[in-house]
Amino acid sequence: MQSIRDEFEKFLQKGLILVNPHVLDEDYIPDKLLFRDEEIRRIVQYFARFLKGLSPGNLLIYGPPGVGKTHAILLVMKEFNRLVEEKGVDVRAVYVNCRDQSAAGALSSLAEILGLGTLSKNAGVNYIVSKIVKLLKEESTRYVFVFDEIDRMISTIRGRDPVENLLSVTTRLDEKVGRKVVDIVVVANTTNILNRLSASTRSKFVPETLYFRNYNLEELVKILEDRIEKAFVKGSVSPGVPRLIAAYILRGSRDLRWGLRVLKQAGIMADDKVDEELVRKAAEIVDTDLLRETIHSLSPDEFSLLFAITLVNVKGLDPTTSTVYTAYREVCDVFGYTPTSMKHLMYYVLPRLEATGLVVVSTKSLSGGKGKLLQINITESPKEFLGLLIKILEESGERVPQEIKALVGG
């Protein structure tokens, strides 16, 4: 490596082709979402019922990651809140991103948005709800609560699903306040969250559903071309780049957010041109970075389960739930974690881990039609992935037993 001063000089001498990098960021919301006219129309129709004095009920927006669900709801909410204020309609849409939040954390965020100040999530769900109920009783405003990424919530109470916890209290606010006050919009990757609700909560949360499909190849190409036009100097990106990234997205079960991140990485690396070869190098960097980021975001239970599944795969054992759970308890024992129950692990922890794309759950039919077994596998090369997990543990100061390191030749 050259001296630090030389590295600065080298960078300053490079041509600047990525002039609007924020256009490629995940939180950038374009004025118009391409190829989402029908979905946006459906969301508008939902919110428009308020303007006619109707109660629209609840709405579940679902679809795979990176297909525009969050951007669509935020675009409609922004215009809706502006319109009701102009027309003097006492309704307000409120957005809460629930990713990596407990039920108490999400409710604390909601309370702050409603103007209640910062309420510690450690105060507990019941206390926060009592404050929200008191506020709602003192005013006449109707609300739409939008809970985004609800399937990426975290549990802080063993045996209590955070989705059930959040929706069980928010769907009962009307009863506590004594009038119709709240409708709920939930945004998730699948409809499986409904299976996580108790019978009593499901009877309260009966949503209209709206599915966001994946983009096809040509749609991805057009979207990428649109962002390139906004982000880069004209002519600085080879014409074949959008189609190459779109093909990567569809072939590798990735999403548009990944493609935009690759574009940004390639733009940072480029001297004066982003071509196909540079995109391939950028894709490798982004894949490694995203994998590490995902692993670092896992809770102790999620990480322990992931480590256990990886060990089972490396050893070539039958990856049934019982085998994986035995391995999970052994992992917890090695690293000093407190294991949770098998029911909690498989019903609550595993779905969250599966949502990251790091593991896949399938079924295996037993001979003679005697039923089926769940099979749990990681989606990466087992031995290489185990090596990465060991490296991350050691970087954080954990000591990994030699017998585990020996599985990858360590």
From TrEMBL:
Domain AAA+ ATPase stretches: 55-216
A Pfam family assignment: WHD_Cdc6
Gene3D superfamilies named among the record's database cross-references: 1.10.8.60, P-loop containing nucleotide triphosphate hydrolases, Winged helix-like DNA-binding domain superfamily/Winged helix DNA-binding domain
InterPro entries for this protein: AAA+_ATPase (IPR003593), AAA_16 (IPR041664), Cdc6_C (IPR015163), Cdc6_lid (IPR055237), ORC1/CDC6 (IPR050311), Orc1/Cdc6_arc (IPR014277), P-loop_NTPase (IPR027417), WH-like_DNA-bd_sf (IPR036388)
Swiss-Prot/TrEMBL keywords: ATP-binding, DNA replication, Nucleotide-binding
Binding site for ATP: 67-71, 215, 227
Family: Belongs to the CDC6/cdc18 family.
Function, as annotated: Involved in regulation of DNA replication.
Protein name: ORC1-type DNA replication protein
